[in-house]
Amino acid sequence: MPKAQETVLEIDLKALKHNFEHLKSRITNNTKFMAVVKAFAYGNDACEIACYLQNLPVDYFAVAFVHEGVKLRKAGITKPILVLHPQAANFNILIENCLEPNLYNTKILNEFITIASAEKLTDYPIHIKFNTGLNRLGFSENDVNTIAFRVKETSAVKIKSVFSHLAASEDLNERDFTISQIETFKKITEAIATQIGYKPLLHICNTSGILNYPEGHFDMVRSGIGLYGFGNSEKENKNFKPIGTLKTIISQIHDIEKGQSVGYNRAFKTDAFLRTATLPIGHADGIGRQYGKGKGYVIINKQRAYILGNVCMDMIMVDVTNIDCKEGDEVIVFDSNTTAEKLAETANTISYELITAISQRVKRSFVEN
Ligand SMILES: *Cc1c(COP(=O)(O)O)cnc(C)c1O
């Protein structure tokens, strides 16, 4: 691998393939696979990731918002794309780009049917989401009759899938709750299939649902974080390879005398001699201020160098007093050993937040190792 000469997020497509194949090995051949590539494919570049996955047996893609789906279409993605959280203001763009909306309440269902009818569409694929306990988005069980009535009286739309989302699939202490969500989902989907007279695809599992609840796989599963290399538990992490390596370099080394301070607000003051390295990566690149003041660290020459004082917009200063290094040396922020999950833990957050926060100004480079 070439040594970094600037801040770069290196993305390993071989690792992506490995993760995909592992996830596929955990489902049956009859279960479809939806690759969740919202939020720039969790910071990894959705177009590149989806273009690579499109040549593998992926059945569906999912994004959160309409403009994310438009970008995929422009990049040449032809497989179906579910928009998990569309807004009615974008329905015309959604239709022009053959994107498929998640409709989660009566208001948005009616709004979509109105537009689809005006456009004289027939059997336009829609997806109906039920709330089974997350209490975020979704119809309630009581809405089954209304949905069936609205969908049966129009030829503009057809329910392609019915789905729900688990609240705590990674937490085995919440097993009973998750099982009850799966049971509620079964009950609701049986009722709706009876009323509309056909069987839409059913899906409820995200990555941890796939790994922990085979009884919840139904017709399709949806995976995001697993594809990017995290299994949300020590045991499952062993089966995955984080696809992203965030690297940077040492711009400058300073010798700091006793009594001096480092960075804004003099947030770090030293009572002994100290050597620091300044790195060209800051909160505008996705390393938030919560990683500062000795919480987060980077790896230089295989050793941990802790962040000193406040994280700046474009820089951090790290402690290299006991590390053999020089200006221009490579620095690892996270990789497959010192993972984004471990770094995220130092700031009491999760891998999802750290990797999706890596900003667009950080160069992405794709490798197949
Ligand atoms: C983001 C999201 C997923 C993917 O979850 P992972 O834990 O990353 O696999 C699946 N389903 C829905 C509805 C989502 O919003």
UniProtKB/TrEMBL annotation:
It holds the Pfam family Ala_racemase_N. Its EC number is 5.1.1.1. It comes from the Bacteria. Its cofactor is pyridoxal 5'-phosphate. One of its GO terms (molecular function) is pyridoxal phosphate binding. The keyword Isomerase applies. Pathway: Amino-acid biosynthesis; D-alanine biosynthesis; D-alanine from L-alanine: step 1/1. InterPro entries: Ala_racemase, Ala_racemase/Decarboxylase_C, Ala_racemase_C, Ala_racemase_N, PLP-binding_barrel. The active site is at K38 (proton acceptor), Y264 (proton acceptor). Residues 243-367 form the Alanine racemase C-terminal domain. Signal peptide: none annotated. Substrate binds at R136, M313. One of its GO terms (cellular component) is cytosol. It catalyses: L-alanine = D-alanine. The modification N6-(pyridoxal phosphate)lysine is found at K38. The keyword Isomerase applies. HAMAP family: Ala_racemase (MF_01201). Catalyzes the interconversion of L-alanine and D-alanine. May also act on other amino acids. Belongs to the alanine racemase family. This is Alanine racemase. It comes from Mariniflexile litorale.
